[in-house]
Amino acid sequence: MFTGIVEELGEITAVETLDDACRFRLRGPLVTEGAQHGDSIAVNGVCLTVVDHEGDEFTADVMAETLNRSSLGVLTTGSRVNLERPTAVGARLGGHIVQGHVDGTGEILERKPSEHWELVKISLPADLARYVVEKGSITVDGISLTVVDAGPDFFTVSLIPTTLALTTLGLKQPGDPVNLEVDVIAKYVERLLGARAAQGDTK
Protein backbone atom coordinates (compact mmCIF):
# COMPACT_ATOMS: atom_id res chain seq x y z
CA MET A 1 0.00 0.00 0.00
CA PHE A 2 1.09 3.56 -0.75
CA THR A 3 -0.14 6.96 0.40
CA GLY A 4 0.45 9.11 -2.68
CA ILE A 5 3.21 11.14 -1.02
CA VAL A 6 5.94 11.17 -3.68
CA GLU A 7 9.36 10.57 -2.18
CA GLU A 8 11.52 11.31 -5.17
CA LEU A 9 11.49 12.59 -8.74
CA GLY A 10 13.33 9.82 -10.58
CA GLU A 11 14.39 9.25 -14.17
CA ILE A 12 14.09 6.50 -16.78
CA THR A 13 17.64 5.60 -17.77
CA ALA A 14 16.88 2.76 -20.20
CA VAL A 15 13.89 1.12 -21.89
CA GLU A 16 14.04 -2.41 -23.32
CA THR A 17 11.07 -3.27 -25.53
CA LEU A 18 9.95 -6.91 -25.42
CA ASP A 19 7.28 -8.79 -27.42
CA ASP A 20 4.44 -8.21 -24.95
CA ALA A 21 6.13 -6.14 -22.26
CA CYS A 22 9.00 -3.79 -21.59
CA ARG A 23 11.75 -3.44 -19.03
CA PHE A 24 12.55 -0.11 -17.43
CA ARG A 25 15.75 0.89 -15.72
CA LEU A 26 15.15 3.79 -13.37
CA ARG A 27 17.35 6.06 -11.28
CA GLY A 28 16.18 6.89 -7.77
CA PRO A 29 18.86 7.15 -5.06
CA LEU A 30 16.34 7.44 -2.22
CA VAL A 31 13.93 4.64 -3.13
CA THR A 32 16.73 2.20 -4.03
CA GLU A 33 18.36 2.59 -0.63
CA GLY A 34 17.96 -0.82 0.98
CA ALA A 35 15.89 -2.13 -1.95
CA GLN A 36 15.72 -5.87 -2.46
CA HIS A 37 14.64 -8.13 -5.30
CA GLY A 38 10.83 -8.42 -5.19
CA ASP A 39 10.23 -5.11 -3.40
CA SER A 40 7.48 -2.81 -4.67
CA ILE A 41 8.04 0.75 -5.86
CA ALA A 42 5.32 2.96 -7.30
CA VAL A 43 6.31 4.59 -10.59
CA ASN A 44 3.91 7.38 -11.59
CA GLY A 45 1.36 5.65 -9.39
CA VAL A 46 1.87 2.16 -10.83
CA CYS A 47 3.07 -0.50 -8.41
CA LEU A 48 6.08 -2.22 -10.01
CA THR A 49 8.33 -4.99 -8.71
CA VAL A 50 12.07 -4.55 -8.36
CA VAL A 51 13.75 -7.16 -10.55
CA ASP A 52 17.31 -6.01 -9.98
CA HIS A 53 19.10 -3.01 -8.53
CA GLU A 54 22.61 -1.64 -8.60
CA GLY A 55 23.79 1.56 -7.03
CA ASP A 56 21.06 4.17 -7.34
CA GLU A 57 19.20 2.38 -10.15
CA PHE A 58 16.65 -0.43 -10.27
CA THR A 59 15.02 -2.50 -13.01
CA ALA A 60 11.31 -3.30 -13.31
CA ASP A 61 9.31 -5.32 -15.84
CA VAL A 62 6.03 -3.90 -17.14
CA MET A 63 3.54 -6.31 -18.74
CA ALA A 64 1.23 -5.47 -21.63
CA GLU A 65 -1.84 -5.06 -19.39
CA THR A 66 -0.08 -2.35 -17.42
CA LEU A 67 1.17 -0.62 -20.56
CA ASN A 68 -2.38 -0.62 -21.98
CA ARG A 69 -4.07 0.61 -18.79
CA SER A 70 -1.56 3.30 -17.82
CA SER A 71 0.60 6.00 -19.33
CA LEU A 72 3.84 4.09 -18.72
CA GLY A 73 3.90 3.11 -22.38
CA VAL A 74 4.78 6.67 -23.43
CA LEU A 75 7.85 6.86 -21.19
CA THR A 76 11.24 7.01 -22.87
CA THR A 77 14.83 7.31 -21.75
CA GLY A 78 15.15 10.59 -19.87
CA SER A 79 11.51 10.78 -18.78
CA ARG A 80 11.03 11.98 -15.20
CA VAL A 81 8.82 9.87 -12.95
CA ASN A 82 7.31 10.03 -9.47
CA LEU A 83 8.68 7.36 -7.12
CA GLU A 84 7.31 6.12 -3.81
CA ARG A 85 8.11 3.11 -1.64
CA PRO A 86 5.31 1.23 0.15
CA THR A 87 4.10 2.60 3.47
CA ALA A 88 5.66 0.96 6.51
CA VAL A 89 3.27 -0.52 9.06
CA GLY A 90 2.72 2.02 11.82
CA ALA A 91 3.85 4.97 9.69
CA ARG A 92 1.75 8.12 9.30
CA LEU A 93 -0.78 8.04 6.46
CA GLY A 94 0.17 11.36 4.92
CA GLY A 95 -2.06 11.14 1.83
CA HIS A 96 -4.78 8.51 1.43
CA ILE A 97 -4.96 4.78 0.75
CA VAL A 98 -3.34 4.17 -2.65
CA GLN A 99 -2.97 0.67 -4.09
CA GLY A 100 -0.79 1.44 -7.08
CA HIS A 101 -3.44 -0.10 -9.36
CA VAL A 102 -4.23 2.43 -12.06
CA ASP A 103 -7.93 2.69 -12.96
CA GLY A 104 -7.41 4.65 -16.17
CA THR A 105 -5.68 7.63 -17.70
CA GLY A 106 -6.62 11.26 -18.06
CA GLU A 107 -5.11 14.16 -19.95
CA ILE A 108 -3.94 17.55 -18.78
CA LEU A 109 -6.49 19.95 -20.27
CA GLU A 110 -5.52 23.30 -18.82
CA ARG A 111 -3.17 24.97 -16.35
CA LYS A 112 -4.01 28.24 -14.61
CA PRO A 113 -1.06 29.62 -12.63
CA SER A 114 -1.55 31.91 -9.66
CA GLU A 115 0.89 33.68 -7.37
CA HIS A 116 1.15 30.86 -4.83
CA TRP A 117 -0.53 27.85 -6.44
CA GLU A 118 -1.70 26.48 -9.78
CA LEU A 119 -5.07 25.10 -10.84
CA VAL A 120 -4.85 22.10 -13.17
CA LYS A 121 -7.81 20.69 -15.13
CA ILE A 122 -7.65 17.00 -16.05
CA SER A 123 -9.95 14.92 -18.24
CA LEU A 124 -11.84 12.10 -16.55
CA PRO A 125 -12.97 8.82 -18.20
CA ALA A 126 -16.75 8.40 -18.04
CA ASP A 127 -16.55 5.12 -16.11
CA LEU A 128 -14.56 6.77 -13.30
CA ALA A 129 -16.58 9.95 -12.92
CA ARG A 130 -18.94 8.51 -10.29
CA TYR A 131 -16.01 7.89 -7.93
CA VAL A 132 -14.70 11.46 -8.04
CA VAL A 133 -16.31 14.04 -5.77
CA GLU A 134 -15.56 17.60 -4.74
CA LYS A 135 -13.05 17.66 -1.86
CA GLY A 136 -12.52 13.91 -2.24
CA SER A 137 -9.19 12.20 -2.85
CA ILE A 138 -7.72 11.09 -6.17
CA THR A 139 -4.29 9.88 -7.22
CA VAL A 140 -2.72 11.54 -10.27
CA ASP A 141 0.56 10.01 -11.46
CA GLY A 142 0.97 8.59 -7.96
CA ILE A 143 0.30 11.90 -6.19
CA SER A 144 -2.43 12.07 -3.56
CA LEU A 145 -4.50 15.17 -4.37
CA THR A 146 -7.74 16.77 -3.26
CA VAL A 147 -10.39 17.37 -5.91
CA VAL A 148 -11.37 21.04 -6.18
CA ASP A 149 -14.18 20.65 -8.72
CA ALA A 150 -15.66 17.50 -10.26
CA GLY A 151 -17.49 17.58 -13.59
CA PRO A 152 -18.96 14.79 -15.74
CA ASP A 153 -15.75 14.42 -17.75
CA PHE A 154 -13.13 16.43 -15.89
CA PHE A 155 -11.85 17.42 -12.46
CA THR A 156 -9.54 20.11 -11.15
CA VAL A 157 -6.81 20.09 -8.50
CA SER A 158 -4.80 22.87 -6.90
CA LEU A 159 -1.05 22.38 -6.73
CA ILE A 160 1.16 24.04 -4.16
CA PRO A 161 4.76 25.07 -5.02
CA THR A 162 6.19 21.95 -3.32
CA THR A 163 4.11 19.64 -5.54
CA LEU A 164 5.07 21.61 -8.63
CA ALA A 165 8.76 21.48 -7.76
CA LEU A 166 9.06 17.87 -6.59
CA THR A 167 6.72 15.90 -8.89
CA THR A 168 6.02 15.39 -12.58
CA LEU A 169 2.96 17.64 -12.38
CA GLY A 170 5.31 20.58 -12.41
CA LEU A 171 6.50 19.40 -15.85
CA LYS A 172 3.32 18.12 -17.53
CA GLN A 173 1.68 20.29 -20.18
CA PRO A 174 -1.79 20.29 -21.81
CA GLY A 175 -2.12 17.12 -23.88
CA ASP A 176 0.13 15.02 -21.65
CA PRO A 177 -1.39 11.81 -20.21
CA VAL A 178 -1.55 11.06 -16.48
CA ASN A 179 -2.39 7.93 -14.52
CA LEU A 180 -5.52 8.03 -12.39
CA GLU A 181 -6.45 5.92 -9.38
CA VAL A 182 -9.75 6.71 -7.68
CA ASP A 183 -10.44 6.18 -4.00
CA VAL A 184 -10.66 2.41 -3.49
CA ILE A 185 -13.11 2.87 -0.60
CA ALA A 186 -15.67 4.33 -3.03
CA LYS A 187 -15.38 1.25 -5.26
CA TYR A 188 -15.89 -1.16 -2.36
CA VAL A 189 -18.89 0.79 -1.08
CA GLU A 190 -20.46 0.71 -4.53
CA ARG A 191 -19.90 -3.05 -4.83
CA LEU A 192 -21.32 -3.80 -1.39
CA LEU A 193 -24.39 -1.60 -1.87
CA GLY A 194 -24.99 -3.14 -5.27
CA ALA A 195 -24.86 -6.64 -3.78
CA ARG A 196 -27.26 -5.65 -1.01
CA ALA A 197 -29.69 -4.11 -3.51
CA ALA A 198 -29.57 -7.28 -5.61
CA GLN A 199 -30.36 -9.42 -2.57
CA GLY A 200 -33.29 -7.18 -1.73
CA ASP A 201 -34.71 -7.57 -5.24
CA THR A 202 -34.91 -11.35 -4.78
CA LYS A 203 -37.00 -11.16 -1.63
From TrEMBL:
InterPro entries cross-referenced by the UniProt entry: ATP_synth_asu-like_sf, Lumazine-bd, Lumazine-bd_dom, Riboflavin_synthase-like_b-brl
Lineage top rank: taxon: Bacteria
Matching Pfam families: Lum_binding (PF00677)
CDD domains noted in UniProt: Riboflavin_synthase_like (cd00402)
Swiss-Prot/TrEMBL Lumazine-binding repeat ranges: 1-96, 97-193
PROSITE patterns: LUMAZINE_BIND
Pathway(s) annotated for this protein in UniProt: Cofactor biosynthesis; riboflavin biosynthesis; riboflavin from 2-hydroxy-3-oxobutyl phosphate and 5-amino-6-(D-ribitylamino)uracil: step 2/2
EC number: 2.5.1.9
Catalytic activity field: 2 6,7-dimethyl-8-(1-D-ribityl)lumazine + H(+) = 5-amino-6-(D-ribitylamino)uracil + riboflavin
Task of the protein: Catalyzes the dismutation of two molecules of 6,7-dimethyl-8-ribityllumazine, resulting in the formation of riboflavin and 5-amino-6-(D-ribitylamino)uracil.
Annotated protein name in UniProt: Riboflavin synthase
Provenance organism: Streptomyces thinghirensis
